[in-house]
Amino acid sequence: MQDHTSPSSLENAIALQKYGVGQPVRRKEDDTLVRGKGKYTDDFNLPGQAYAWIVRSSHAHGIIRDIDASAAKAMPGVLGVWTGTDLAAANYGPFTCGLPLKSRDGTPLLQTNRTALMTDKVRYVGDPVAFVVAETLAQARDAGEAVVVDIDPLPAVTDPEEAAKPGAPQLYDHIPNNVALDYHYGDAAKVEAAFASAAHVTKLDIVNTRVAVVAMEPRAALASYDKTSERYTIQVPTQGVAGNKLNLAKNILKVPNEKVHLLTANVGGSFGMKNINYPEYVCVLHAAKALGRPVKWTDERSTSFLSDSHGRAQKIHCELALDSEGNFLAVKVSGYGNLGAYITGVAPQPLSLNIGKNIGSVYRTPAMAIDIKTVLTNTTLMGAYRGAGRPEANYFMERLIDRAADEMGINRLTLRKRNFIKPAQMPFAASSGVTYDSGDFQGVFNKALEISDHANFAKRKKESRKRGKLRGIAVGSYLEVTAPPGVELGKIVFEDDGSVRLITGTLDYGQGHATPFAQVLSAQLGVPFESVKLEQGDSDLVHTGNGTGGSRSITASGMAIVEASKLVIEKGKRAAAHLMEAAEGDIEFGNGRFTIAGTDRSIDIIELARRMREGKMPEGVPSSLDVDHTTEPVPSTFPNGCHVAEVEIDPETGIVQIVRYTGVNDFGTIVNPMLVAGQLHGGVAQGIGQALMEYVSYDASGQPITGSFMDYALPRAEDIPLMEIGDHPVPAKSNPLGTKGCGEAGCAGSLSTLVNAVLDALSEYGITHIDMPLTPERVWRAIRDGKKMA
Length: 790
Prior knowledge:
Layout: H1 9-19, H2 30-34, E1 50-56, E2 62-68, H3 70-73, E3 78-83, H4 84-89, E4 121-122, E5 128-134, H5 137-146, E6 148-153, H6 160-163, E7 179-186, H7 188-197, E8 200-211, E9 220-226, E10 231-235, H8 241-253, E11 260-263, H9 279-291, E12 295-298, H10 301-307, E13 311-322, E14 328-340, H11 348-351, H12 353-358, E15 368-376, H13 390-408, H14 412-419, E16 428-429, E17 435-436, H15 441-451, H16 457-466, E18 470-479, E19 489-494, E20 500-503, H17 514-525, E21 532-535, H18 553-579, E22 587-590, E23 593-596, E24 602-604, H19 605-614, E25 627-630, E26 640-649, E27 656-666, H20 673-692, E28 723-727, H21 745-762, H22 776-789
């Protein structure tokens, strides 16, 4: 039987050349998004919906004496006002951190058990204490401003080191000295012995700046409740619907999982911030049930600065021990991580565990000790932010290496080369406890030097000096241990119209999943690229998956697609054998067609799916090609690279300009190089923001100073240089596609190279360290101080 109405094997093969793995296929969704036709949470509305406004604390720390909502309740259009006491009666569960982290003494992480609305104390400016629902947003806002909150102020503390000292203001009675986790990793005796035998020890004190996420789309939620089915539905921007639904149902609402329906449409950025549930979501769900009508809430930028989780925020002391030849012996990291006022999501992990996992980077570092206290302060809660500990750890190591090279009189490049892990040493058991499966770090390094024209830097520096500018260069390697192992969903559905639905548990919030996932599926099954439709945002369909985070998407969903495709082919061979009256063992599959070996009799996979769906299959023969598959835990991968930055500095103003930037990376098998380059550009841009301008700050009373874009600087197009991007792929051995995550690598590579390049330019003034952000004022003051010391 030859099917003449569907594509031939040759036609499918030609299509795969255009849309297959490795091709720079344009993003499927761009036509929709660029034309403004995307649908984000605030674009959704339901008949009869009301509007919520959150009442927040204006004090950083204080005891709640009374909340008077009587005036607000009497205002026009107001449907209800709720406080923490009201929500407590509903017996909602608290927001907690589910990570099994333990302090050095073996005790578990101390939980803050945050409630949606505070009843006893407020602990940061912006802490929600009540909410109003009214017919219109304006009415809800007006009524919210009429709620009188009586708070007795208490002393506040915003610095984690100060908060951990005896006598500091205490946020919780059950958390002494505000230390929720006293984290330790490593063989302390081995590390101390290495330092005792070292010919040289380099020491650095580093502030890892607190940054705001400032995603383009603010958080929002639209909630409804069906009284008949007793089912909650919430439309909300997330990084994955399955995990957030489970947490919301099981831990917070305390209802069966099937009683919650979570929907996510287009998401305008997240970078880690939207991957947890927030108090506002509980508020609108509670009101929707109480009022019997939908309730909508949309954040504003001013309150986003207060209520969205922040990132980074550490005070670190680090040391590197080396022998007389410059070989690394051990590294030590100690200090404090700022948790903010509450612990939810994965907040402690980037500040502690992930530092240890990533500090070794691409270097042979026989021993390490990580000792970090994660501390509660009267500031906005902390969360994951692009890289979540990975860029920070690489930053600490690269800063140590440059300083050690200068102190020992060893060329910076030579010192790195001397300590690279070699390909012949793979798999390499790092002192971090993880085993790298692949990598050619010296090869990546060499290619970066070549592409960046490092050899001719001296000429460019001389030309800059003629124009009165200081020029600096830095070369920095990085390695990331991507997201910890987790299962993933691969669900394939063949539709009546010939399209193929792909359902998986990661979620696109800007990465462009639809295109590379379709490329992988098309390559596996030979289905037309244009026919693949991706669905990720409906928890009724996506029953499993860990969402997008930790640079896991292409590896996890890719593995799920490959495994699910094999199951489709197995089913297809059995069905094709029946329809073509052949033995199953004689059926071959390739380029989208099932063929009887040695003959020209074949059937296209889409046609086969139709025949199976419309005809009656005998017992033992599948009636559908559809597959619903969940993988075993998908292993971490180890993306790595080498970035080179060149800067020019105006010594009269302290203004830093990035004049050249090169990034060579090993992302294993690259499914779509255009999308990978875009991820690199975005990550580097965020690194530029933190390195040169972004900084969330508070005054002594805990009031935020950087509460809007008038006070908080983000990089603009003119601040982002043209980038030379190169690849040196070494496929991973831990997943069937050989991919390695790329989403956070730009941050990991850029922080150290930018800061080290600025310090290289300033070295003639004897300047060896400036903490981020390297603002014009900080650089200018360092130059003036350096001139005075000269």
